Amino acid sequence: MNNRPVLILGARSDMALAIAHSFAKEGHPVQLAARNPDDLEAARNDLQVRYSVDVSLHAFDALDTAGFEGFLDALPALPHIAVCAVGLMGEQAENETDSTAATQVLRANFEGPALIFAALANRFAERGSGTLVGISSVAGDRGRATNYVYGSAKAGFTAFLSGLRNRLTEHGVHVVTVLPGFVATKMTEDLDLPAKLTAQPEEVGEAVLRAVKSKRNVIYVRKIWWLVMAIIRNIPEMIFKKLKI
Amino acid sequence: MKLSGWGRFPTHDVALSAPRSEAALQAQLAEGAAIARGNGRAYGDSALSQTNTVHMRHFAHMLSFDDKTGVLQAEAGVLAADIIDSFLPRGWFLPVTPGTKFVTLGGMIAADVHGKNHHADGSFGNFVDWIDVMGPDGKVTRCSRRKQATLFQWTVGGMGLTGIILRAAIRLRPVESGWIAQQMIQAENLDAAMDVFERSQDSTYSVAWIDCLSTGAARGRSLVMLGEHAALEDLPKPRRKMPFQTKDKRKLSVPFSLPGWLMNGLTVRAFNALYYWNGSRKAGESLVDWDSYFYPLDAILNWNRIYGRRGFAQFQCVLPLETSRAGLNALLEAISEAGAGSFLAVLKRLGPQESRFSFPMEGYTLALDFPVNARTLALMDRLDAITLDHGGRFYLAKDSRMTAETLRASDPRTDTFEAARRKSGACETFASEQSQRLKL
Ligand SMILES: Cc1cc2nc3c(=O)[nH]c(=O)nc-3n(C[C@H](O)[C@H](O)[C@H](O)COP(=O)(O)OP(=O)(O)OC[C@H]3O[C@@H](n4cnc5c(N)ncnc54)[C@H](O)[C@@H]3O)c2cc1C
Ligand SMILES: NC(=O)c1ccc[n+]([C@@H]2O[C@H](COP(=O)([O-])OP(=O)(O)OC[C@H]3O[C@@H](n4cnc5c(N)ncnc54)[C@H](OP(=O)(O)O)[C@@H]3O)[C@@H](O)[C@H]2O)c1
């Protein structure tokens, strides 16, 4: 079981690398896919030295949807587990006025991740096994003034994952939706996040590994987020529309 | 942001950065007197700089491992815990380890840490082949005992004050199992404990826990723990197939700060008596997994919070062999008189060591924790004086409160260190709150 390859999409992200470490530690070979994969050489070497597993690097651009089948064909093996950490927060203010910027955010968080998973899903279903892990976001649970472009794309991805799960269960393919809450990564480096609500990338790595092993469907990394989101989702729209959160 | 060392005292408002590349690190040095921060396990202010604290967490790649020689090349931010995780299953352990595995390679070199095997193997620096150091000008120099030897010697034990350690090569120790064959010996007082240490120079590991409140003829009663890496044949048959598998214990954690009054003399007295009683019941030989043996406190995450929000300070000195008996007795007497006893009183025999600025020297080292308050601060001043009277010196990785005068009185190497820093220009680029307090 532990010799099954794990594909990590968006592998330069701190979260993605922490997930790669969790699986490599269990002995899984790892395929790291990212734009400009060459500068992941140090990360690759690190994984190999630490865990004596095979690690390969692959060029992957989530906006190059036409290249997806070719990308999958070129992998050393069809993975058993695929994790998509691709995401782009963007600047909400810019997204409101600049449709090119907004399109980038919508595509990087929804279109790209959804379509690469669609392609993987078909191959997994044909084989009759596999696990897809999508890193979505609690921002997709309810649109807020401060980040609804990003949030709505994540909402789309979350719904897509839920649909895939529903479709693929009978084909032996499992889908995990990860709603990380705040995580201390490059994306959030300059934000002042509340410590109790903020997970370290390593916590996400461990949580994803556990979720895959125990076939969880939807996970929050820190449990408190379940409560936070239950409250946020249940605020009546009449009130919600006036809140600044 | 507000930041402290492990003792949560003192706390400073620091500018904290975590560069992700050598170029970013170089640029960061221009932002004002800088100090590298590993995992913040030094107790006091060694890894704090109000102007420029540079966290090394993004320099945490392993570079190579040679499983014939056990030589590991890694970046400075790699944790001891990660080294064990990766290489113990392949039959290698740290050659020297402090009492927590949550320290970085850079931190172990900068403090030139000692373990329970110092009398046999010396300090961490003995197992370092080379170090890459980023100096005041941002240039990276590889130094070793042979090349750039001066930089190497000042950097090992230099508390981050010679530059930023980027990478190093260290030699791991081959082991046959993840188990330690431990022998626990009760010693009715300090003399008895020291006799056990002197008799046990052949043991790889030795350390004693002291009940520091016992008085009179029982002053310094302790449990001395000796240990050896268990060989395959020392393990019960069923374990020999998986000699590196020791169970994963669940971690307890202290989620909030307990009030400081919990740590007053009475509670500590009760704790000590209980510990002693409990320990003596188990006296004798046993097989202990590496984690419980080397890192008992790591099982309780954030145990530093049990001292409450005001934080705590550790006192650690080493006394030369000739004066150890008298000096330790005087220290213990002062502590029990003050009734401010300490949860953790650890005694260790150190072997000979020649180094430019490292802490260890041949003799005995005593380490104790105190909750910070006016009374314990005064007591620690008194302990400083006793240490000076007996020709001892102090461990900077534990210090948070000593004066520059005390340091100079204890250690003639201080002025040479300061001069070397002036000569290399390091004194302008690298400084910690500690180095400023101690005028280094
Ligand atoms: C529970 C506990 C038990 C301990 N037991 C022992 C023991 O048995 N023996 C012992 O010797 N010590 C012991 N220590 C002390 C500890 O080993 C040292 O303080 C060690 O330096 C901590 O490493 P760190 O990575 O957390 O470094 P930090 O605490 O972050 O920094 C410590 C010093 O190292 C410097 N430093 C860190 N990284 C770098 C770098 N990359 N380049 C240059 N300088 C750097 C810092 O500037 C600072 O001066 C113990 C500490 C604790 C909390
Ligand atoms: N950090 C948080 O608090 C948080 C919370 C909830 C959800 N998330 C989600 O968690 C995931 C990981 O994020 P992170 O926090 O680690 O931030 P991150 O470092 O910004 O990671 C996002 C990754 O997506 C990659 N990416 C963006 N556009 C791409 C494209 N067109 N093609 C290929 N890769 C692309 C980026 O690659 P490059 O390195 O090449 O730019 C980057 O490595 C994201 O999906 C994010 O939305 C994060």
One letter per element, helices H and strands E, the order of chain A comes to EHEHEHEHHEHEEEHEHH
Which structural category do the helix and sheet elements of chain B fall into? Answer: alpha+beta
Q: If you average the pLDDT of chain B, what whole number results?
A: 91
At CATH level 2, the architecture of chain A is: 3-Layer(aba) Sandwich
Detailed description of the structure:
- The complex is a heterodimer of chains A (245) and B (440).
- With 245 residues, chain A is α/β, with parallel strands linked by helices.
- Chain A has one domain (6-240): Rossmann fold (3-Layer(aba) Sandwich).
- In chain A, 46% of the residues lie in helices and 16% in strands.
- Chain A is built from nine helices and nine strands.
- Chain A has helices at 14-25, 41-51, 68-73, 92-97, 99-127, 148-168, 201-213, 224-234, 237-240, and strands at 6-9, 30-34, 55-59, 81-84, 130-135, 173-179, 182-183, 198-199, 218-220.
- In chain A, strand 1, helix 1 and strand 2 form a beta-alpha-beta unit.
- The longest helix of chain A is centred in the middle third of the chain and has 29 residues, at 99-127.
- Chain A is globular and about 55 Å long.
- Chain B is α+β, with helices and mostly antiparallel strands.
- Chain B has two domains: 62-175, Uridine Diphospho-n-acetylenolpyruvylglucosamine Reductase, domain 3 (2-Layer Sandwich); 179-408, Alpha-Beta Plaits (2-Layer Sandwich), CATH 3.30.70.
- Chain B contains 15 helices and 22 strands.
- The longest helix of chain B has 18 residues, at 321-338.
- The two termini of chain B are 25 Å apart.
- Classes of the chains: A alpha/beta (245), B alpha+beta (440).
- Chain A binds chain B through residues 25, 42-43, 45-46, 49-52, 186, 189, and chain B through 18, 20, 60-65, 82, 85-86, 90.
- Residues 6, 35-42, 46-47, 56, 76, 98-100, 103-104, 106-108, 110-111, 113-115, 159-160, 164-165, 297, 397, 432 of chain B line the site of flavin-adenine dinucleotide.
